[in-house]
Amino acid sequence: MTKMQDKAAVSAPQQPGFDRRYDVQGLDAIDTDVLGTFEQVRLDDPVHYPGEPMQIEITTDEFSPVCPWSGLPDFGTLEIRYQPRDVCVELKSLKYYLTSYRFVGIYHEHATRRVLADLVKLLDPLSMEIRCDYGMRGGIKTVCTVQYMAPTQETS
């Protein structure tokens, strides 16, 4: 670099937009009220369902909370695996719930744990695992996995 190029680089104005930050919503924007359930076993079906307990796996590549620092979206593939106790999550309501994260400023790790907490509270499953594989950002990839196992209930 010549002295003239060096001097120009030092005195060059900062690029517009580099200090930009988008507003983010708080955790209260996460819409748990929209979540719905349905019975795991159809009560009007006289046939016994063999092979219980059932494992349910739900995957979406449209999970996109935002970075709490910049407000920019963090895209992730969210995987939900659970063994229902009595009820299953209704998928349309789950889609609306996950969409409510779209403008919430939340770290990857917190978002993954929050989804687990909300779904465990809703479903009271036998077990559940939430895994979110977030896209590459700045050369770093984040994959968060959290698990829940219902406490064993002793019978007398």
Automatic annotation (TrEMBL):
Q: What reaction does this enzyme carry out catalytically?
A: 7-aminomethyl-7-carbaguanine + 2 NADP(+) = 7-cyano-7-carbaguanine + 2 NADPH + 3 H(+)
Q: Does the keyword Oxidoreductase apply?
A: yes
Per UniProt, subcellular location reads as: Cytoplasm
Q: Which SUPFAM superfamilies has this protein been placed in?
A: Tetrahydrobiopterin biosynthesis enzymes-like
Q: Where is this region: Disordered?
A: 1-20
UniProt KW keywords: Cytoplasm, NADP, Oxidoreductase, Queuosine biosynthesis
Please state the Enzyme Commission number of this protein: 1.7.1.13
- Annotated residues for binding of substrate: V89, E90, L91, H108, E109
Q: In which pathway does it act?
A: tRNA modification; tRNA-queuosine biosynthesis
Entry-linked InterPro entries: GTP-CH-I_C/QueF, NADPH_dep_7-cyano-7-deazaG_red, QueF, QueF_type1
Pfam families membership: QueF
Catalytic site: C67, D74
User: What family does the Swiss-Prot or TrEMBL record give for this protein?
Assistant: Belongs to the GTP cyclohydrolase I family. QueF type 1 subfamily.
Explain the purpose of this protein. Catalyzes the NADPH-dependent reduction of 7-cyano-7-deazaguanine (preQ0) to 7-aminomethyl-7-deazaguanine (preQ1).
Name it.
Answer: NADPH-dependent 7-cyano-7-deazaguanine reductase
Q: Which organism is it from?
A: Deinococcus aerolatus
